[in-house]
Amino acid sequence: MPDNILEVRKVSKGFPGVQALKDVDFFLRPGEIHTLLGENGSGKSTLFRVVAGIYQPDSGGVLLDGRNVGRWNPAIAQENGVAIIHQELSLFPDLSVAENIFLEQSSFTTAWGWVDWKRAHAEAGRLLDYLKARNISPRVKVEALSVAERQIVEIAKALAGSNLRILLMDEPTSALSVEETRTLFDIMRKLRNDGVGIVFISHKLDEVFAVSDRVTVLRDGNRVGTENIADIAAGALIGMMVGRDLGDVNTRPASHAGGEAVLEVKNLSRGALVRDVSFTLHKGEILGFFGLVGSGRTELAETIFGIARATSGSILLDGRGVDIRDSNAALNAGLGLIPEDRGAHGLVLRMSLYENATLSVLDRMFPRRVVNRAREKDAARRIFDTLDVRYRDVSECVDNLSGGNKQKIVLAKWLLGDARALIFDEPTKGVDVGAKDVIHQLMDKLASEGMGIIMISSEMPEILKMSDRILVMCGGEISGEFRRGEASQDEIMIAASPGAGGKAAAG
Ligand SMILES: Nc1ncnc2c1ncn2[C@@H]1O[C@H](COP(=O)(O)OP(=O)(O)OP(=O)(O)O)[C@@H](O)[C@H]1O
Ligand SMILES: [Mg+2]
User: Fold this and answer.
1) Rounded to the nearest whole angstrom, what is the distance from the C-alpha of residue 77 to the centroid of ligand 1?
2) Please, what is the angle between helix 117-130 and helix 147-160, to 10°?
3) How large is the average pLDDT for residues 86-102?
4) What is d(CA 298, CA 320) in angstroms, rounded to the nearest whole number?
5) CA distance linking residue 192 with residue 335, whole number of Å
6) Which pLDDT tens digit goes with each residue over 228-245?
7) Which pLDDT tens digit goes with each residue over 390-429?
8) Domains plus CATH for the chain?
9) Which ligand is the nearest neighbour of the Cα of 217?
């Protein structure tokens, strides 16, 4: 029996203007969790799609159990036990869990074309049982499930196909809480111990170290190397990914916080989601908001920014009360919000890069309403360079970019505006370590120029590194406040946990 369940040999794949993979080798053993690591646009998702039969490689080949697969497409890949869980989930929300799991199977169809639901439900229940997800009912519609639960249903669906042997998971943890991630890792380990080869993609290094057996690093479509996770340090891995020295990624130079208040929020409430929140954001300050998923941070941001109306309380900018009826009023008052869900809120996918970036500032850039395309593209190019966006041409369609580079375009869009205070909601979710460093430096630079910054983050290292002050939220309320350097990870976690230090959520 060959050592490798999967061999990707000298695979190249190009798109017009980009060589996404260059002679890449990748070997997967049965019963291992093998992480693919690399900057945004380095070729990870493309490699997945080649293995899953979605893309044909331009050259090179894929071998299963040492044999060339020959003709290869998604259906044949699936028959051979290869399953892919995409960066964006692909279930049908208005179908039930069992329907989703068995959608592509005909095993429950009787000779008359009827589906044997009793058996399908029992079998779905058995799969969910195996995944230790007994709380998910096979009968419930997928739209009623959380993202974490949907992910488990995707895995159940992969298991329902022919004998699952290779599971490709593209950033499965990006929308999960710490607890949900832990559950998912338990499932991955169980599958691994049962002999499944798992290829995992994540930008979070702590996760990579927690769950991987081996790691392969890609850079600009090249394979840089493969290492046992036990034999390599984080610094060395980062070096392989970015090919340059990032210096110490865990510290930030001195604070720029001044005494003057930019934004004052007084007794702000929005039903039970945001409850009596008061704080002051100063000039040049980076105010970190930590909390667990569902603690009310995004709801607070949306209320301040006028996406949702407050039920009580007031907001002052530069000492003057402002009435923020909607997000236009917020923009005019000098507030900006970089939302968490950048896919849905941020981009017009069929428009070009530069149009997306300048969309909301055209009025201000060209007050006489005569648009100068050359100047517009120039402004876009400059901000893309600052953010190190990997693109070919400012006129290309934004949908061609990799997941992380799309996020940078949304950032670019907001940075072209001229806000006095910016709210960043999970600013580095889904971006690689190099880009994360760039975004952190950028936030620091904006603060040094006097901008007040609110940074919502669920990543403890980011909160500790960037914040001048940390506010912790729990159940819609502020449950703790810490100064830079005074906070310990434990104290912050306790303040964030319902029933521990944090106040329990109502209802
Ligand atoms: N369908 C496509 N058409 C044109 N270019 C593409 C297409 N798919 C990917 N690319 C390009 O190929 C390169 C690799 O993209 P890929 O999606 O594999 O990156 P990735 O490593 O998954 O990045 P991320 O971490 O941001 O998800 C990028 O330059 C991307 O713009
Ligand atoms: Mg990707």
Assistant:
1) 21
2) 110
3) 86
4) 24
5) 48
6) 999 998 888 888 887 765
7) 889 999 999 888 877 887 888 788 778 778 899 999 888 8
8) 1-81+163-247 (3.40.50.300), 93-161 (no CATH), 261-496 (3.40.50.300)
9) 1
Q: Give the pLDDT band of residue 180 (cuts 50, 70, 90).
A: confident
Whether 505 shows a pLDDT value over 90: the answer reads no
Task: Please give the distance, rounded to the nearest whole angstrom, from the Cα atom of residue 45 to the centre of ligand 1.
Answer: 7
The residues, ordered by sequence, that sit 6+ positions from 232 with a Cβ below 8 Å of its Cβ are 215
Whole-model pTM? 0.71
Q: What residues form DSSP beta bridges with 270?
A: 274
**Exposure pattern of 378-404 as b/e (b: 16+ CB <10 Å)?**
ebbbebbebbebbbeebebebebbbbb
The ligand that comes nearest to the alpha carbon of residue 408 is 1
pLDDT tens-digit series, residues 247-305: 555 667 778 888 899 999 999 999 999 999 999 999 999 999 998 777 899 999 999 99
Nearest to residue 4, comparing CAs of 37, 36, 43, 31?
Answer: 31
Structure tokens that stand for 485 in this block: 């350097």
